[in-house]
Amino acid sequence: MPDKQQNFVRHFLGTEFFRYLISGSIAFICDFSVLVFSTEVLGVHYLYSNIAGYAVGLIVSYTINIKWVFDHRQYHDRQRREFAYFTFIVMAGLGISELVIWLATESIEFPYMWSKVISAFFVFLFNYTAKKWLLFSPTDR
Fold this sequence. Notes:
It is a single chain. The chain is mostly helical. The protein has one domain. The chain is 80% helix and 0% strand. The chain has 5 helices and no strands. The chain has helices at residues 3-13, 16-41, 46-69, 79-107, 112-134. The protein is globular. The mean pLDDT is 87.
């Protein structure tokens, strides 16, 4: 691999975005597992199961985001406020997730699990952008 490509790959692997991709993947696995378990084993409707999974994903995501993903924290000295803002962003993402899952499952007739995967793409982009801009950017913007 030429040096420019190696440098690009090394740089990308060290970025916040890459760390967020890893963090988001871990949170998604937890979220998806709760969704499937609640729906298939407990018999809960998939939209309610999605909310439960999303709550688990929120806690996993918040913990990893503040400990490892982002280099800057605007509210590091006010964790309650930071968590409240983080939760507000995630709740907006939940609204997107619920809408996409419902539309894909009920209108297009995708299985709810595939609908969740589709929604994850949109929610990932929304959450990263909102969190980076509102919570984890340098304060001297």
